[in-house]
Amino acid sequence: MLSRVFGFGRRAFDSLTEQEILALAISSEEDDGRIYRAYADGLRDEYPQSAKLFEAMAEEEDGHRDQLIEQHRKRFGERIPLIRREHVKGYYERKPDWLVRPLGIDKVRSQAELMEQQAYRFYVEAARHTTDASTRKLLDELAAAEQNHELTAQHLEEKHVTGEVKTSEADTERRQFILTYVQPGLAGLMDGSVSTLAPVFAAAFATQDTFQTFLVGLAASIGAGISMGFTEVASDDGKLSGRGSPIKRGITTGVMTSLGGLGHALPYLIPHFWTATAVAAVVVFFELWAIAYIQNRFMETPFLRAVFQVVLGGALVFGAGVLIGNA
Question: What is the pLDDT of residues 150-194, one digit of tens each?
């Protein structure tokens, strides 16, 4: 870790020989080609046209690598030194494709644009450190190619990703986001906010002890979060329903369930009972409003109907908790 942060054990770019600069360029082009193919593989099932775009960009990187290898063969022979970007101090890094997942369309396109800008700057600097005319000419050409990659990508996008395809892919991405995150998160928030109302307020009015009430709310929230999370994971592996990774859905559901319950449990850390209860009631109002907003925003439920359903359900559970607590 320290060597990565402070550059211990790395070569300065200025210390590289022309052979090492060519070797570094070759390995960088190979890495970029692999990354573009990984993007294509990750997008192929849901965004086949965008996958073709990244396959074409990977082929462009292969062409650059072949040019560099041929230049190395002419000047230095067949044996290419092993030098990669992690061996050079200050050299730009590449994120593995799994670090930018889920592979949303906008995310991978912006990442590709950043990759091209970084590659352009590298070739410009590499050309400055090269005295051989043919090598310098090649590096300048590759710098120009990387600079024009944005235009090339636009041409490829026009070929493979039409306006209708973009609209379709955007709809698919939004639908997948809703299925994987919004629906499980909403279910968790509703369960955590509503189902814990009764035990929290029952404990509050039964004991009028704020800390004991907080412990009840904490236990109910965390217990409900764990239960809801495991239930979501076990209920659907996502392969047939298309709802995405069960792990992502389970974590989303569990976290939102716990947060929904903790929202009106945390005010009971306030030692004064009626102050804590008043704050908790205000928090409940915002929790229920948030649920109604999410239903309206993402699930296209009419806002008034969502408010009525949530408020009615919350009021019934809240009233049951108060009545039981005062019994």
Answer: 555 555 555 555 555 556 556 666 677 777 788 888 888 888 777
In tens, the pLDDT along 235-279 reads 777 665 567 778 888 888 889 888 888 888 899 999 998 999 889
Contact in structure between 124 and 141 (CB atoms under 8 Å): no
In this structure, the number of other CB atoms found within 10 A of the CB of residue 216 comes to 22
Residues 287-303 as b/e (b if ≥16 CB within 10 A, e otherwise) read: bbebbbebbbebeebee
Cis before 302 (ω within 30):
no
Are 201 and 323 a contacting pair, CB within 8 Å? Answer: no
User: Which string of DSSP letters, residue by residue, matches 41-89?
Assistant: HHHTTT-HHHHHHHHHHHHHHHHHHHHHHHHHHHHH-S------GGGBT
Annotate 98-147 with DSSP letters as a single string: GGS-S--HHHHHHHHHHHHHHHHHHHHHHHHT---HHHHHHHHHHHHHHH
**CA–CA dist 39, 262 (Å, integer):** 39
CA 126 – CA 28 distance, rounded (Å): 13
